[in-house]
Amino acid sequence: KVITESESALIKQVIIMSTIDVLVLVLLIMIISRMVIKPIEELNERVKDLSAGEGDLTKRLEIHSNDELGQMAKNINNFLDKLQNIILNIKNTTNSAITIVGKIKDDSTK
C-alpha cells in the first residue's frame, strides 16, 4: 500500500509537470511568433502598400530595429532612393531634350 501511494503521488507529479511543460511551450511559441512572424507580416504589408501606391517614390519603410528585417527595410529604402534619383534624372533629361527640340524648331522656322 505504501508503494501504491508513492506511485500515485509520482504519477500526479508527472502529470502536473507535463501540464506545466505544455503551458510553457505554448507560451514560448506565442512569444516567438510575435517576435518573428509579426515583424515579417508588418514589413510585407508596408512593401505591399508601396507597390500598390500610385508610384509615390517619396514613401519609405519605417525602420524599427537593426536586425535582419531592419536591414531589409533599409535596403528597400536605399533601392527606392536610387530609383527616385534615376526617375528624376530621366525627367530632367527629358525636359532638357524638349527645350533643345523647341529651340531647334524655332531656329528652323526662321
Which features characterize this protein?
mainly alpha; 110 residues; rod-shaped
Describe the model.
By secondary structure, the protein is mainly alpha-helical. It contains two helices and no strands.
Number of helices: 2
Structural class computed from helices and strand pairing = mainly alpha
The rounded distance between the terminal residues' Cα atoms is 121 Å
Average per-residue pLDDT, rounded, comes to 88
Q: What about the largest sheet? A: none
Spans of at least 5 consecutive residues whose pLDDT stays below 50 are none
- The portion of residues forming beta strands comes to under 5%
Provide the helix percentage: over 70%
Quantity of strands, as a count: 0
User: Looking at the structure, what is the overall shape?
Assistant: rod-shaped
What is the radius of gyration?
31 Å
| SSE topology string | HH
Summarize, please:
The chain is mainly alpha-helical and 110 residues long. The chain has helices spanning 2-52, 68-109.
Topology:
Layout: H1 2-52, H2 68-109
